[in-house]
C-alpha cells in the first residue's frame, strides 16, 4: 500500500469513527463493550438488555457500496473500506462472514479446480461457487486408510490444484526413509520448477492480500465499535460434512453407504482420530466463555438422510467430537444447522445446560426453543428468500415473532438463515436490524 492510499484510508476511518460516535452519542469503546456484552450474554443463555442482531455478507457489502463482488478477491483495501462503511450505517450488534481471506490471484496461480470466484472463472458479479468432483475415487479407500497424508499429497492435491500435478511422481512417503537423494532429480523437471515458481508467486499474492486486509477485526473495533460474532477458536469438527465436500461428493457418499459402508465408516473414523489427536486446549479469557466449534454444518440434514443413516454415519462421531471439545476446556460449542434438523433436535437433550450456540437455517426454530431452550442458545433464522423477495413489513412481522417467542427468557440472537445475502434488498436488511432495536428490549 502506497503512502497516499494509507493517508486516504486514515482520513476515511477518522470520518467513520466521528460519524459513529456522533450518531450514537457514545465512544466506539463504549459501543464495543455494550455490543460485545449483549452478544455474549445471549450466547451464554442469559437475558441481555435486548435481543442482539448479527449481520454479515462478503458480497452484500460490495453491492451496498456499489462495487463488484470481485473486489473481495482482488482489491481487499476497497472491500474493507466498503464493509466498514456499510456496518457504520446499518449498525447491527456484531458482524459475521466478513473478509474474504483468499487472494484471487493466488487461486489463479494455483489453478484451483475446486473454487470458482468472481473476477476469476466467474463474471465479476457472480458469487463464489464450488465445483464438486470425486477428488477421491471409490476404489481408493484402502490407499487413503493406509496413509492419509501420503494420499493427500500424491493423489488428492494434484486433482484439486492443477499446478500440483507433478506431486503424483513422488514415491510413497513411507518408502522414502533416508533415501532423499534418490528423488532429488525429480526437482530438475519442468513440472517441479513450475511448482516452485507458482508457489512463490501464489505465496506473494496471498501475503499481499493478507497484508492489505490487515487487522480487520481491530479496525472494526477501533473505528466502528463493533465486535465480530461470537468467536470460536479450536474445538473438534466431526468428519462427515467435510468428507463429502472435499473427497467423495454427495453422490459418491450415498453410493458408498450401500456398496462399501465399512470402508466409509473407517475413513470417517480416521479423520476424526486425527482431528482429536491434534486439537488444542481452549485458551481462556477472564469473564468470557471459551467457544469451540463441533458441527456438522451440511449434508446431514433431514433432506439428505434418514434418522437411521444419521445414527450410523454421523451421530457417533459427532458425539465424540463434541465430548473432546468439552474435554479440551471449551465451555460452549458452536454449531450451524444448515437445512432442516427437525428430526435431530432430541439428540442434543443430553448436553449440559447452556452448553451450545446453534445457528439454524430452516429448522423450526420455535419448536427448537421448546425442546432445547435450557440446553442451547439459538441464532436465526430469517429466510434469505424473505430478505430478497419480501416487503419490509414481512421482515418486521417475522422478526417480531422471533423476538417474542424465541427471544423469551434470553438466549437468542437474531440473524438471517445464511450469510449469502448478496441478493437481499438493503431496505429489508435495515428493517431486520431496526426491528430488533424497536421491539427487542427485555
What does this structure look like?
By secondary structure, the protein is of the alpha/beta class. It has a domain at 240-439: TIM Barrel (Alpha-Beta Barrel). It is 52% helix and 8% strand. It has 18 helices and nine strands. It has helices spanning 3-24, 28-43, 58-65, 71-74, 76-90, 104-110, 141-146, 148-160, 180-183, 190-213, 216-224, 240-259, 261-278, 307-327, 365-372, 384-389, 392-405, 426-439, and strands at 54-56, 94-96, 115-116, 129-130, 291-293, 332-337, 356-360, 376-382, 412-416. The strands form three sheets. A five-stranded parallel beta sheet has the order 5-6-7-8-9. Helix 14 links the parallel strand 5 (291-293) and strand 6. Helix 6 packs antiparallel against helix 10 (190-213). It starts with a helix and ends with a helix. 40% of the residues are buried.
What topology emerges from the helices and strands here?
Blueprint: H1 3-24, H2 28-43, E1 54-56, H3 58-65, H4 71-74, H5 76-90, E2 94-96, H6 104-110, E3 115-116, E4 129-130, H7 141-146, H8 148-160, H9 180-183, H10 190-213, H11 216-224, H12 240-259, H13 261-278, E5 291-293, H14 307-327, E6 332-337, E7 356-360, H15 365-372, E8 376-382, H16 384-389, H17 392-405, E9 412-416, H18 426-439
Parallel strand pairs: 1-2, 5-6, 6-7, 7-8, 8-9
Antiparallel strand pairs: 3-4
Helix pairs in contact: 1-5, 1-11, 2-11, 3-5, 5-11, 6-10, 12-13, 13-14, 17-18
